Amino acid sequence: MMNEESEKMFPYNAHNRRLLETALGNEPADLVIRDGVLMDVYTGRVVPHRSVAVAERWIAYVGPDADYAIGEQTRVIEAGGRVIAPGFIDPHTHIANFWNIADFLKYAIPGGTTTYITEVEGFCFALGAEGFRAFLDQVRDRPVKIFCLVPPMVSASPAAAARFIAVEEIRELLRDEQVIGLGESYWQSAILTPDDRILHLIQETVKAGKTVEGHAAGAADRRLAAYAAAGATSCHEAVSPEDVLNRLEMGYCVMLREGHIRKDLESIRPLIGEIDLGRCALSTDGADTEFLLSEGYFTDVVQKAVDMGLKPIEAIRMATLNPAAHFSLDHLIGGIAPGRFADILILPAPETMRPDIVISEGRVIAEGGKTLVSLPRIPHPDQLLKTVHVPLLSPEELSVPLSACSKPGAIRTMDIQANGLVTREGSAQLSSSTGTVLADPGNDLLKIVFIERVSGAGERFVGFVRGWGQKQGAVASSLIWDASGIVAIGADDLDLVQAINRVIELQGGTVLALGGEIAIDIPFPIAGYGSDKKIEDLTSEVSGFQKTVGDLGSTLRSAHLTLETMASAAIPFIRITEKGYFRFRENDYVGI
Ligand SMILES: [Fe+2]
């Protein structure tokens, strides 16, 4: 359905006259790409000697000869036998956290991703629908397309409910052409609960004609079926060939994840040549600064698919037409065809995915690995910079009385598993006889604290964690997944309080305190999730954090990522909240 806003995006009205006249040869093109090898995603062929004519932001003609459309003002790019491919689409990512989006794009654009479909959960856990609108303001009118998904905000922390986006609000947000659907709802919270909140969000999204993204980690058979029946249409959590097949068979679009959190692309290796991959897409599921700088964002994911033995046209389809079709955008993006946006890559050779030239909506935006367009930083509204509503703490407030133990002489723990993401419930013997339960860093037993940051009361829970490894000092961060709060882990109460209070003073950040002093502070003032530093500086600060945590005894591969996930409702089996530990299997809250 058309409205005033969508005219900006859809090539109708005045535009289709211009396009058809250019195709017919009655008006010159603005841009012509001559003599390339076309990646024809529609037939799966690689076609030599193809040229493309572009009028304004759209493709007007594709065929053997576009010279007729060259006028005096037409820019001509000689492909000279190089490859013409559609711009890449990352169908599931998280680019709202960590960096200023303008800086992110500077590094991501030269890799050829011209469409990003992103979750926006962090801004919403901080500020609800207002946070979502603030992020939309950051991504409008950028030289590439950034579509946003409204987060269902599944959280283990009850305090997050204060920020939930209501049905009336989602209805309003979905009217925006830049809002493409409902973000990942962890399947358990959608279908294994009598609460219909997520189902109502799904219904509203379907009514608006938009897509419902899924997250079916660990689901199979009846539960996987129930999740699809509830309305989920994609999953980026397939980690084995069986998972891929089960999801495809049930109609899911399978987004194969290859990013900094996990790398699961290998799971299609045994399926190459065996099944139709038309419903498979590639995705990053987010990137950290290191991944962004070293992996070219999405480019190397597509490259890896080719290197694994997929035909280049097949890998390119999984990064263009397949995701476009999933979001019902294939009439606009995902292929080189008349009427589509002129989002075009010139690749040096069919098996090389790093583009020489990146064209977005008819404009050359990167060449030879360099971004050519300006990417202004847009100021954030004031309320997005003041989202940590927690009174400062004193060390006594983190003391845990022996009476809190559910069993005499023992405490319940969260045990971080080897991959640094999954946690399991454990039990540790008490070593203290002082009347309070203390951390025991010599035995890798540290305190873990969750403080909610929305009510103003700073409601909190102090638990215990093993597997973090620090022998002294404490860390705290507001950059935590799926919750509105601060998570801290530490060997002693003084450092814990120093670290937490510094996060509060910064109005968001990651902090390491040692010997009563602040050793590292990385501010994340944008909603408590985003930095305003240059990406190179941010990268070196995060690697400094990793090194220091390592020097203090931790062997975690990515300590920051582990800290981010301690309250997440996405990863089993026991998480921390202000109401206690949340246990996935039991679906309950328990103390130590
Ligand atoms: Fe995700």
Provide structural commentary.
Mean pLDDT is 95; it is low at 1-6. The longest helix has 19 residues, at 121-139. The radius of gyration is 25 Å and the shape is elongated. With 592 residues, the chain is of the alpha/beta class. It contains 15 helices and 30 strands.
Topology:
Elements: H1 14-24, E1 31-40, E2 45-55, E3 58-63, E4 75-78, E5 83-86, E6 88-93, H2 101-108, E7 113-119, H3 121-139, E8 145-150, H4 167-173, E9 179-186, H5 187-191, H6 197-207, E10 211-215, H7 221-230, E11 234-235, H8 241-249, E12 253-257, E13 280-283, H9 289-295, H10 299-307, H11 312-317, H12 321-326, E14 344-347, E15 357-360, E16 363-367, E17 370-371, E18 400-401, E19 410-416, E20 423-429, E21 436-437, E22 445-452, E23 460-466, E24 474-477, E25 485-490, H13 493-506, E26 509-514, E27 517-523, H14 535-551, H15 559-565, E28 574-577, E29 580-583, E30 588-590
Parallel strand pairs: 1-4, 1-5, 6-7, 7-8, 8-9, 9-10, 11-12, 12-13, 19-23
Antiparallel strand pairs: 1-2, 2-3, 5-14, 14-15, 15-16, 16-17, 18-21, 19-20, 22-23, 22-25, 24-25, 24-26, 26-27, 28-29, 29-30
Bound molecules: fe (ii) ion.
